[in-house]
Amino acid sequence: MSNSAQADKFSCAPFIKEIGRGKDGARGLPREQAKTLFSAILRGEVSDFELGAVLIALRVKGESHDELIGFLQAIAQHWPDESHSPHFHTLQALNAQSRAEGKPVIVIPSYNGARRKPNFTPLLAGLLAQRGYPVLVHGLQSDFTGRVTSAQVFAHLNWNAVHMPHTAPVYMPMAQIYPRIEALLQTRKVLGVRSCTHTLVKLMVPSAFSNALLVTSYTHPEFWNLQREVLCATGHTALVLRGHEGEPVAAPYRSPRMDGVKAGGTWCISEPENLFTEQPDPHPDIDAESTARLIEMWLNNPQEMPHGFARQLDAIEAVHQAPNQAISHAAI
Q1: Total tally of structural domains belonging to the chain
Q2: CA torsion sign, 210 to 211 to 215 to 216?
Q3: Do 129 and 223 sit in the same domain of this protein?
Q4: Which of 56, 86, 133, 310 is least enclosed by beta carbons within 10 angstroms?
Q5: What is the mean pLDDT of residues 288-307?
Q6: Phi, psi of 14 (to 5 degrees)
Q7: Taking a C-beta distance cutoff of 8 angstroms, is the pair 130, 141 a contact?
Q8: Closest Cα partner for 199 from 317, 308, 68?
Q9: Which residues form the Glycosyl transferase family 3 N-terminal domain (predicted)?
Q10: Average pLDDT of the residues in 195-220
Q11: Domain residues for 43?
């Protein structure tokens, strides 16, 4: 993602001066400045050298509420024309299913991948599809650190082998949805750490969807409030939970806290469980093919499935069914 030839078009120095003073001295950017900066990044007007400085400065400081909103506004403003996307008809089909079923498109960002336990994000997608929800999972095709991605599990799943009375869920790589965002995600290979882009993709909903419900997760506690604040401010409908293996799916044997976001308000749907009610497998097979076979088995025999997934399904249903007016003044 070389932007060196366009380095003289935009200077990041005034922005780096604010965000690059270290963890204690740095100041967050106002919303409009954040939008201006990220717009320049998306247009390719920032040199690689300055881009690295911006991403590392934000990583050290931590993104603020206004910065994330400004970045998301820039992403929305520069969203690629989806009518020219090779997946345009897929996105339109999801919209059509949403209208026919009277249910939102469930958007599931999957960018962490599994390292110690199986990646059950495709299972969540399948369970939602069985209930008649149109489902889009988006993420990376592969992870250079060796984590098992949802893309890899989807590649091994045989939807024809499971009970699927409705349309199967769709997986789409970010490279095909928004190439510039994919390029920013790939800076991790050079910088060695994730950037604010990994936070942003968990809050993005494709512009093609007229009715969507985002299922997103956090790992670090400080993001619990931050994500909900941003989603309230941007007007999204969402379920926010502490992720399992960093993925937006409930832990199988111990349900996490889950919060709803709708109409600018947020509320607690369920508190976390403190104890295991079932004995988890201490040494599960986590490779993509083994995970796919387990998912197929549970989709065909949901009574054998750990209870955590069913609780997440109920929480998503609660967000969908919640009346807008009843929660419009809920507090964060």
Answers
A1: 2
A2: positive
A3: yes
A4: 86
A5: 95
A6: -60, -30
A7: no
A8: 68
A9: 15-78
A10: 94
A11: 4-77
